[in-house]
């Protein structure tokens, strides 16, 4: 593992922002970090990147203790805060050169690495234009270029596609997948459920300062499948009264009947009996169980 967090805590006055959390991240993994506003995600991220110090607990990142060797850690990571902004009165290229200087990249090496990442994010042809004329999506792509120019082993991203246009979001998502394939490790905080499900191998859900669960998206979905949603499509409109005594109906949409249940067997038995008793007057066109979305999983777990 490349990140190991143990019993991490942080208080601000009487407010416990982070309450003794522990988790680990594997090399080459895209690790999602989800939670409602005020859950403690940003405070956790600021501790992981060395911006603030924890009250207690430990952070071991890329083999270094964050408390003992913060400089060595910061040299090897890239960070994109949620509200990161490049210098808007400078060109994209000038922003890249300033960033290169922070990591002791100079001359030809700085120019080659800057050109490479700007091309990756579709900004190379706009490199000599001032950033004040860039869209929000272009600015975010530039910030990501600046975070990647020194080829970090570990990348921290806080809501990287929040509020962006579709093109910028897709470019960023594709680049993150490519980085993971190159064995880079990515720590991603996001409210975008589609993004989390598409990118993340594992997801941690945080609420009220604590980590509630850490698991793969597909496993998290299965944990909420105790209450199943069943959609039955008949060949004609059916009322709840028609099915009384067979199954308990939760919702009717035209020919579709929706049932929420813990056990499928009684529903199957009830529908079969209803069809037989109708003596061919009613037929079932389809019968589907609906898998919960990651957003439904997130809401169910965080509210629990």
From TrEMBL:
InterPro entries referenced in this protein's UniProt entry, alphabetically: AAA+_ATPase (IPR003593), ABC_transporter-like_ATP-bd (IPR003439), ABC_transporter-like_CS (IPR017871), ABC_transporter_ATP-binding (IPR050763), P-loop_NTPase (IPR027417)
Residues in ABC transporter domain copies: 3-233
Domain of life from the UniProt record: Archaea
SUPFAM superfamilies in alphabetical order: P-loop containing nucleoside triphosphate hydrolases
Gene3D superfamilies: P-loop containing nucleotide triphosphate hydrolases
Stated name of the protein: ATP-binding protein
Presence of the UniProt keyword ATP-binding in the record: yes
UniProt organism field: Methanothermobacter thermautotrophicus (Methanobacterium thermoformicicum)
Endpoints of the signal sequence: none
GO MF terms held by the record: ATP binding; ATP hydrolysis activity
Record PROSITE patterns: ABC_TRANSPORTER_1, ABC_TRANSPORTER_2
Keywords noted in UniProt: ATP-binding, Nucleotide-binding, Transport
Keyword Transport set for record: yes
Family: Belongs to the ABC transporter superfamily.
PANTHER family: ABC TRANSPORTER ATP-BINDING PROTEIN, ABC TRANSPORTER ATP-BINDING PROTEIN NATA
């Amino acid at each position: 593992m490349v990140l190991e967090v143990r019993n991490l805590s942080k208080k601000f006055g009487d407010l416990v922002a982070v309450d003794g959390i522990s988790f680990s991240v594997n090399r080459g993994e895209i690790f999602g970090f989800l939670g409602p506003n005020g859950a403690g995600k940003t405070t956790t991220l600021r501790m992981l990147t060395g911006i603030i110090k924890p009250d207690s607990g430990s952070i071991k990142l890329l083999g270094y203790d964050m408390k003992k060797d913060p400089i060595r850690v910061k040299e090897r990571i890239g960070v994109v805060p949620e509200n990161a902004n490049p210098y808007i009165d400078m060109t994209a290229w000038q922003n890249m050169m300033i960033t290169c200087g922070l990591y002791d990249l100079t001359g030809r090496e700085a120019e080659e690495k800057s050109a490479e990442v700007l091309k990756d994010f579709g900004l190379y042809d706009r490199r000599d234009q001032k950033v004040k004329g860039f869209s929000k999506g272009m600015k975010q792509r530039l910030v990501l270029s600046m975070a990647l120019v020194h080829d970090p082993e570990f990348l921290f991203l806080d809501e990287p596609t929040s509020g962006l246009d579709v093109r910028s979001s897709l470019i960023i998502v594709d680049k993150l997948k490519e980085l993971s394939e190159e064995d880079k490790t990515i720590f991603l905080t996001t409210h975008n459920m589609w993004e989390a499900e598409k990118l993340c191998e594992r997801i941690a859900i945080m609420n009220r300062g604590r980590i509630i669960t850490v698991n793969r998206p597909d496993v998290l979905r299965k944990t909420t499948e105790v209450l199943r949603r069943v959609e039955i499509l008949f060949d004609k409109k059916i009322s709840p009264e028609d099915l009384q005594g067979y199954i308990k109906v939760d919702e009717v949409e035209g020919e579709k009947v929706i049932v929420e249940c813990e056990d499928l067997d009684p529903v199957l038995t009830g529908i079969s009996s209803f069809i037989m008793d109708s003596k061919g007057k009613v037929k079932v066109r389809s019968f589907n169980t609906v898998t919960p979305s990651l957003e439904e999983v997130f809401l169910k777990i965080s509210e629990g």
